[in-house]
From TrEMBL:
A Gene Ontology term for the protein's cellular component: membrane
Organism field: Alkalisalibacterium limincola
Residues at the catalytic site: 125 (nucleophile), 269, 296 (proton donor)
Gene3D superfamilies per record: alpha/beta hydrolase (3.40.50.1820)
Residue span(s) of domain AB hydrolase-1: 48-303
GO terms (BP aspect): proteolysis
Keywords: Hydrolase
Keyword Hydrolase: yes
SUPFAM superfamilies hit by this protein: alpha/beta-Hydrolases
Name this protein carries in UniProt: Alpha/beta fold hydrolase
Length: 322
């Protein structure tokens, strides 16, 4: 295990003065841009790159990792994808594609010197989709893969949202939400009010709104709504068919993933935990972690299961047990 003194030592590192923060240049067909990353700790064999959700959210979703992973001497790297708050924001929908973001992750990997001897890729929600896509495109660079709170088929997500989660609401509330969606009245304050009161606090983060951590409030404040709507759509009850991700499905391709893989699901998630358990059996070397008290952001509402399970997976892969 990495010694604490080595883990905390940034001396002679190019990002010492900035406390691990740097900007990485990204080449695209639309020009040169840069993305924001921040490294926490030093561990030559366990380096975890964090892919945030959204699309268009921020690394702030993972700030609670600071309370758990340093004690395990695990290196992790915050990263805001292009057009997210801390990175450049060219605002060009031509770049809002799976292909672009996979290539962007590969450019970030090269710049950080991540490789098959140390590179763990963690993705949650949209980040989980991106992690799957990266693993299919560049498996030779990965040491391990973590797919958190994301199913492998958008249509399965849509069905679960409308057939299982929606009916758990009071009938009049669900009916009003669906009516607002049929009218495409997504900017109506009532739409967000109903979702926050009856959906988000039940299935995204199971805490009263006035107790939500500041990191989550900042994530919502900094969300790139144009990018989010373009790629996933307005609705919180399934992705819009004409959005970039509207028909995404990689279930049939999971068997091609041969790197050790952890899928994470939660009882109260917006995604079906049984599907995520199934995914662990489809990849070649899979493990499922269930968070019985958690929802979509299980790192916040079920850290007692989320972090021990994540750390155990990282250790087992690093020591050749998976």
């Amino acid at each position: 295990m990495t010694e604490l003194s080595d883990y905390l030592d940034y001396s002679n590192a190019p990002d010492q003065l900035t406390g691990g923060v740097r900007r990485i240049p990204i080449s695209t067909p639309k020009g040169e841009f840069s993305v924001w990353v921040k490294r926490v700790g030093n561990n030559p064999t366990i380096r975890v790159l964090l892919l945030h959700g959204g699309p268009g959210a921020t690394h702030e979703l993972y700030e609670c990792f600071d309370g758990y992973l340093p004690a395990e001497a695990i290196e992790y790297i915050y990263y805001d994808q292009l057009d997210s708050h801390y990175s450049d924001q060219p605002g060009d929908p031509a770049l809002w594609t799976i292909e672009h973001f996979v290539d962007e992750v590969e450019q970030v990997r090269r710049a950080l010197g991540l490789d098959k001897d140390n590179f763990f890729l963690f993705g949650q929600s949209w980040g989980g989709m991106l992690a799957i896509e990266y693993a299919l495109a560049h498996p030779q660079h990965l040491k391990g893969l973590i797919i958190s709170n994301m199913v492998s088929d958008v249509q399965a997500y849509n069905r679960y949202a409308r057939e299982v989660l929606g009916p758990q609401m009071p009938p009049e509330v669900f009916a009003e939400i669906l009516q607002l969606e049929r009218e495409q009245d997504y900017e109506n304050p009532r739409y967000e009010e109903l979702l926050m009161q009856h959906h988000y606090t039940a299935h995204v983060l199971r805490m009263p709104l006035d107790e939500w951590p500041d990191s989550i409030l900042r994530t919502f404040k900094h969300l790139n709504k144009a990018l989010y709507v373009h790629m996933q759509g307005h609705s919180e009850f399934g992705m819009t068919p004409n959005a970039t991700l509207g028909n995404w499905n990689r279930s049939a391709d999971l068997g091609r993933i041969d790197v050790p893989t952890l899928t994470i699901g939660a009882t109260h998630d917006t995604m079906d935990p049984e599907h995520m358990k199934w995914m662990a059996g489809q990849v070649q070397r899979g493990r499922y972690l269930h968070c019985p008290n958690g929802s979509h952001l299980a790192q916040y509402d079920d850290p007692q299961h989320f972090f021990p399970g994540l750390v155990q997976f990282l250790r087992d892969v690093d020591e050749g047990r998976l």
